[in-house]
Amino acid sequence: MQGHRNESHIAVDPLDPPVYHAPAPAGHRVLVSAVQVATVVAPYRIGQECAVATFDPRMSLFGAMLAGALLSSIAAGPQAKDVAAPEHRFALTGEPRSPKLFAAGIISGPASDASPAFTPDGSTVFFTRSNSSHHVILVSHKTGTTWSKPDVAPFSGVWRDLEPAMAPDGSYLIFSSNRPAGEGRIALDGAWGGKAYPASGGNLWRVNRQGGGWGKPVRLPDTINRTANVFSPSIAANGDLYFMQPDTAGSFHIFRATYRDGTYEAPVKVALGDANTQEVDPAVAPDESFIVYSSMHPQLHDKQRLHIAFRRGGGWSDPIDLGDVVNENGSNIEARLGADHRTLYFSTNTVPPALPAPTPEQTAYALQEMQLWANDNENIWYVPLEPWLDSHSDRK
User: Fold this and answer.
1) Distance, CA of 90 to CA of 375 (rounded, Å)
2) β-pairing verdict for 203-210 and 190-192
3) Cα 102 → chain centroid
4) What confidence score (pLDDT) does residue 347 get?
5) Cα–Cα nearest to 387, from 93, 6, 41
6) Counts for the chain of helices (H) and strands (E), in that order
7) What is the DSSP string of 79-143?
8) Using an 8 Å Cβ cutoff, are 331 and 1 in contact?
């Protein structure tokens, strides 16, 4: 699920401090600060409000020149066209805001970072940091507006632990791990799509909050862990558990296990998408009123795109693509909800674009960014869900 993003758009919020925004030209995002607004023409969006960039002292020359060049180029770009984005067919009552990078250099760093799980007060976050060899769950604490340097979570660091999910009341976490079911020392192997993934399997484990710390992880029952390929949990307020696992053809789908009288009932496949789609990484609202997830058509070798679906009786509405402001040609994976349950966090691998004939200062800054976070690995971004949630509420 790797890839690069590709869209031209600068997002600006005069109420927020300058941060990396998305999307940006040639699949990348830039740091901008704005004091005025103008209408420009950008690929896939015509007549959209976009910032006339004025540059904060904290910006680099790289970002400043890029933003200026972008505004000039997209205004005259011959490739501009008006494509009806999926969110317009849903008749959004507000314009989607562009995603922002989450805690650059601290939480979104040079490794791959994904799947943030926040405590109910939003002051602590658990997340996955990984490379091709290791997956570890880290924890960071927020003081004021600053996140602390992450530490290894007290229940992680030995096995391939990933994708933590916080219960809405903060009383426990569920995460995926390749740790053995018993007392052995042999990690779980994964297998899907006719391929074996040594030591890369996954079962779901629960760890309870105990006072100011955390207890010992306990493997969920075989009702949930029917195979060694169970990943990406999400927890509803009533204890219902959503997760993903592959079918016999190797395509992943989302399942829901009802939690009743202290036990899980048999998981049922969640009816999302169509017969040819793959659905991964569920992020369900505490009241199960909506779900955000990633979807693609494996046979078409297309890109993952983030979707939202709303509860409709005992099922779900047709999925709504979050549109090109959020989805580009990147990975768009690991959907999670913030502590307010109205902010979407997800991971993708976008990096700032190259400039033709950069100056030595621009090259130095690009190198600094590579060391900090911009190296084609997964980083965590966030975006408000209000346009979709409010539009759905208005339609009721």
Assistant:
1) 35
2) unpaired
3) 10
4) 96
5) 93
6) 4, 30
7) T------HHHHTT-SSPPPPPEESSBTTTB-SSEEEEEEE-TTSSEEEEEEE-SS-EEEEEEEEE
8) yes
* DSSP 8-state class, residue 48: E
Q: What is the β-pairing status of strands 135-143 and 124-130? A: antiparallel
The per-residue pLDDT for range 228-257, each reduced to its tens digit, is 999 999 999 999 999 999 998 889 999 999
8-state DSSP, 26: G
What's the whole-number mean pLDDT along residues 322-340?
Answer: 91
Cα(86)–Cα(92) distance, rounded to whole angstroms? Answer: 10
Residue 60 contacts residue 45 (beta carbons within 8 Å): no
Single-letter residue type at 346: F
Question: Which candidate, 64, 8, 62, 44, places its Cα nearest to that of 372?
Answer: 62
In whole angstroms, what is the distance from residue 136 CA to residue 157 CA? 6
* CA-based nearest residue to 22, from 346, 337, 293, 366: 346
> Is it the case that residue 373 has pLDDT exceeding 70?
yes
The pair phi, psi for residue 120, each rounded to 5°, is -55, -30
